[in-house]
Protein: Glucokinase
Organism: candidate division TA06 bacterium SM1_40
Amino acid sequence: MRPGRCVIGIDLGGTNIRAALVDERGSVRQRHCLSTGAADGVDAVVSRLVEAARTIVSSSGEEVEAIGIGAPGLVDPSRGVVRIPPNLPGWGEVPLASLIEGALGYPTRVGNDTNMVTLAEWMCGAGRGARHMVCLTLGTGVGGGLVLDSQLYLGARGAAAEIGHMTVEPQGPLCNCGNRGCLESLVGASAIAERARMAIERGEGEEMRRLSGGDHEQLTPEIVARAAECGDEAARRVLYDVGVYLGIALASIVNLLDPEIIVIGGGISHAGDLILEPARAAMEERAMRLEDRHVSVVPAALGDDGGVIGAALFALGDDVDPVQG
Amino acid sequence: MRPGRCVIGIDLGGTNIRAALVDERGSVRQRHCLSTGAADGVDAVVSRLVEAARTIVSSSGEEVEAIGIGAPGLVDPSRGVVRIPPNLPGWGEVPLASLIEGALGYPTRVGNDTNMVTLAEWMCGAGRGARHMVCLTLGTGVGGGLVLDSQLYLGARGAAAEIGHMTVEPQGPLCNCGNRGCLESLVGASAIAERARMAIERGEGEEMRRLSGGDHEQLTPEIVARAAECGDEAARRVLYDVGVYLGIALASIVNLLDPEIIVIGGGISHAGDLILEPARAAMEERAMRLEDRHVSVVPAALGDDGGVIGAALFALGDDVDPVQG
């Protein structure tokens, strides 16, 4: 990529559209955020994506070369088609790349949102320099991305890296995907809230109860994490259990893919070592031991910017290299 | 590879050494098998490998270009080093490639045995033409191999594809690797024999009892499969349960790697659809559904020759392409 080139990266979420002007080194020059308004349907959301890009173009004055979009759910990057995204009601197969290209005239690529975060963390974040990297995002959903042999791995139908739907407990809770005991059903935001609620019903979790104002509906992973940081034993136990489930899945991933580093992002990862420490311990206990193998499990480095940075770098395709230290 | 070129492929097992002269299309021209004599130690086994190769060279009269060896356990293919193979007592780190090269003068490459089977099935067996293929071998151990984006995937330390050590039941039986509930601990040969033994102790499995002569020590997966074919309900149940466990692991693999085809080889796979049918059903029930995705689960095509064919093709390195139908 020529120095000084700029790209627009867009993260299309169920709640917000984040757009950014990103340079060739993955630095964010400008941000714009607006509500997705998913309930208004496909056309309205596409209009807002166009609006977000136009706002960036007109206010930055930079020459924009391309647009990259990260979208939830299954995406076919070769055709730029979004397929039945879970948080966007009414979306079937939507040819998002050509819709945006048609409206704005910039070459546009679309990829899965967690794959975009993965690409960003690998090229200029916590996984920089790795040849084999696994990325997880912990939130309402649990997403994944794989960099194998220095390439984003997409699988036969672009559906690889659904780490949230690896089976961890075959008889575990029913998952949204229809399977039982998926990682997501055990460590996703609603699983954490449910565990916290059960602790409170047992008369534990004084601090969680206080922070949620006694209203179960207000119990979020953030509240559980804050309570745990204040020393709430029940909250710590919830995060510990979640970390162990995560570690069981990580051990299987290590045995299957032998990566150098595992990067954990997403909202719930803010609980940090309260989740990551038990996850590391369970992973190390269960993964095959090799004398010279140490798989790092580290927090993502780019925070909320990962999605837009990755989408921007994805738009540039294969003519960008990982940013060196 | 020039037409007519020949390579020696060797499969180093805990019990037998199989060697073969293989041509550039993966056809076996000649075979030689001898006992490994693992108890005699490293030097004796290396001598037998040399002897096996010499026998092939002298009796075939063909010009041999290279030697490829598949060895159990962890192998570092870049250095040709075998590392603590599970069925070869007394082996630490053994520089097998340079030992054989020194004795015979042919360029020699060493890879993990299941990776060799995977390569063979992909290049000229059941997975021919696939871009993304997963291979499992079911036997005393459960091995795996991955072809991702048309390349044998080895991982950061050559330790990828340990599919037998993915966790399927976190609180399941203790595995040889130290973890609990690994696929191998649930579907390996001794797990199958143990399930059969328990059925007989419950007074079931008339045919299994008859075929094993009432001696539990004689209960093998082959006997269970033969009894099941004769209609023994308890034997069928054992294989069904094994198939379901296999299917749970396959669903996780499908969600993680999105392959086109899964090839199942190894001794236990001779039970065929008695295991594969429940495995397919469990996999399809648990893997994320995509309208246009159908992942085939098929038996290996090359049988016992897979190991030597793969080792031979591996010795030729990257200058061979998959054999076209």
User: Anything to note?
Assistant: Chain B touches chain A through 47 residues (CB under 8 Å).
